[in-house]
Amino acid sequence: MRFIAHGLLPIGVEPNLTMTQEPTTPESAAPNRDRQFIQVAPLYDQLMHDVPYSAWIEYIKELLAERGVRPRRVLDLACGTGNVTELLCAEGYSTIGVDIAEGMILEARRKAAERDLPIQYAVQDAAELDLPGRRFDLCVSLFDSLNYVTDPARLQQAMVRVALHLTRNGLFLFDMNSDYALRNRFFDQSNRTTSAPLRYDWESEYFPDTRLCRVNMRFWYRDEEGQENAFSEEHWQFAYREEEIRDMLKNAGFEEISAYQAYTTTPTHRASDRIFYVARKA
To answer: Given this model, what pLDDT does residue 198 score?
Structure first.
């Protein structure tokens, strides 16, 4: 869940509020999915209001055009609150969204109901993806969501499950933070200006021995009664290497695997921070 924030100002005075969680140490705990995307779920769209989702869709369409593919049925894997899912629906695709975080799916369902959108959402782990009778021409998983699968064996299993849900020649399109990005703390960012409806401060730490990156995320916001609130979440990502992802895709039954520097159709390089992968099911 990393994005390029616009117009961040210098760090100001921190509110005198107690955080709801203390960060774990690498010695005391493994990555805990139960501490991610919980309290932030109903505030997620405020946090992401500057993200250029429409530009993402145009980039996806560019990659599809390069392959000469015109999908009809699309699975949005790790869909969050459904922002991309809704845009895919607006493009005319028959779309289903899946995410492991129940709070995010609840928000996605609420928005779809309010807007009368024909989108189905399900709470599922990508490694245990199971949508009986459903086959898709395209599966997308955006915003470095697959970096959150910190066990390589589970990520391999997720790729197998995606392949089982794709039609023959169906495409899997996803992006990931690179080892370079996580090592160089590209996750770190802050916006604690008092005018922002949701303020935050993120600080990451990379553990080279395990290739895990821990991100301590602190948030401040005012509720409808004007009361100042604060909470924290601890997020973990794994720094996968391009050759590992290619091998996993091949093992899952994919071929014609391409890797691009984000938002381009040019190959990756040593300092690529975000990598987009496109693979075809054999």
So the answer is: 85
- Structure confidence at residue 36 as a pLDDT band (50, 70, 90): low
Per 3-state DSSP, the chain is made up of helix, strand and coil in percentages (nearest 5) of: 30, 30, 40
Q: Is the pLDDT of residue 73 over 50?
A: yes
**Segment holding 233, helix H or strand E:** strand 228-238
Question: CATH 3.40.50.150 region(s) of the chain?
Answer: 53-177+241-281
Query: Between the CA of residue 244 and those of 33, 128, 188, 232, what are the distances in Å?
Result: 23, 21, 25, 32
CATH T-level fold of 180-238: N-terminal domain of TfIIb (2.20.25)
pTM: 0.86
Tokens representing residue 5 in the block: 């924030």
According to CATH, where is 2.20.25.110 located in the chain? 180-238
User: Parallel, antiparallel, or unpaired for β 136-141 and 73-77?
Assistant: parallel
- As its CATH architecture, domain 53-177+241-281 has 3-Layer(aba) Sandwich (3.40)
3-state secondary structure 24-88: CCCCCCCCCHHHCCCCCHHHHHHHCCCCCHHHHHHHHHHHHHHHCCCCCEEEEECCCCCHHHHHH
What's the chain's length in residues?
Answer: 282
DSSP state of 147: G
pLDDT at 1 (0 to 100) = 46
